[in-house]
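Sharing a chain and its predicted structure for anyone who wants a worked example. Both blocks are below, sequence first, C-alpha cells second.
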Amino acid sequence: MNNKSIGILGGGQLGRMLVKAASDFGLSICAMDSDGDAPVKDFIRDFKQGDIRDYEQVMAFGKSCDLLTIEIENVNTEALRDLEAGGLEVFPQPHIIELIKDKSKQKQFYRDKGIASPAFEVVNSKEEVKALAHKLPFVNKLAVEGYDGRGVQVMRVLEDLEKGFDAVGIVEDFVPFEKELSVMVARNQQGEVAVYPAVEMVAHAEHNLVEHLFSPAEVSAEVEAKAEAIAVEVIEKLGMVGLLAVELFVTKAGEVMVNEVAPRPHNSGHQTIEANITSQYEQHLRAILGLPLGATEVLIPSVMVNLLGEEGYVGSTKYVGLEEVLREAGVHVHLYGKKQTRPYRKMGHVTIVDQEAQELKRKADFVKKTLKVIA
C-alpha cells in the first residue's frame, strides 16, 4: 500500500482534507487542478496545474499514478475510461462518475432500479420548461455542471418560469419535504459496505447550499433505518468502489427518497473528522485501496457550520472573529487556505462537538454570528 502513488483530480478543500488523511497512512499523493493556488497545493510535493476536463492532460497525469480518484465529478471521463482500460485503477469507476455527473442519467438510474426518488422528465430548452407550467411547482436542474446550488431553480409560480435553464436538464416534482438528510456510505474493492448514521442538513434560504448540519439527525429509528438502507441500496446497485454521499428527502408521512448523490467525500461528511470513529476521508482511502472499512459510529453529537464568503466582499481573504470562536470549548475550525473570497464561496467549515443539544445550538449560532470571511 505505502508504495502506491495516488492521484487526485481536483485540488479543492476536499482534496486537501483527503491528503491530510493520506498522510496518516504514509501514502504518496499527487494532484491536478486548474487553479495554481488550489487548497491542496501546499500539502503535497507533486502538484500539477492543469485542466481536469481535458482529455490529454488527464491521460498524462493518470499515467504518472498507480491509482486515480476524484474530489469533483466534473472531470474528463473519456480519459478515465481509457486509463482504466489500460490497466490503471480508477475509483470511483469512470462509468459511474459519468452516470452521476449527468442528473438526467442519474435520475433514470433510480427509475430503472426501483429506487425511491421524485418523479422527473428530461427537458432540452427553456421553452420545454415553460411548456410544463401545468406541473408547477417543480424544480428545474441542469443535467451537467451544476454545483453548490448553482444549476438548480425552484419554480413555484408562472413568473418563475423565466428563470428556467435554456439547456438540457430535468424538471423534477417539487417535494414538500420535512427534513433533508445525508447518508455517507462506502464500499471497498471486496464489496464490503459501511454506512454512516444520517445527518440533517439545513440549506441557506436563498442560495440552495448547505449552511449547517446536525449529527446525528433528529429522526425516528424507522426513518434512520430507511435512510441507511436506501444509501446501501444505491451504492450496491451502482457497484461503486469508494465513498458515496446520498442526499435524501423525508416527507411528513415518513417517506424517504433520494434527491441526488455525489461519488466522493462531501460537504455533509466534514463533521466525521472530529465526531465519528472514522472520518469520511480515511474511509474513502480505505475503500479505494481495498482495505477493511472503518467503524462509522458517532462518538459525540456535532454541528457543522459552513464558512462562506460574506456578501459584498470580493478580494484577498480576511477572517474576522476567529479568536473569539476559538475560545469556545469543542469548536474545531478548518480554513481551506483560499486566497480569494467572493460572496457565498466555501472558505472553510467549523465543527462544534458537545454532548448537550442546547449547547451545540448555542455555540453554532455564536459561530455563525461571529466568524466572518471578508476582503
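Comments welcome. The mean pLDDT is 95.
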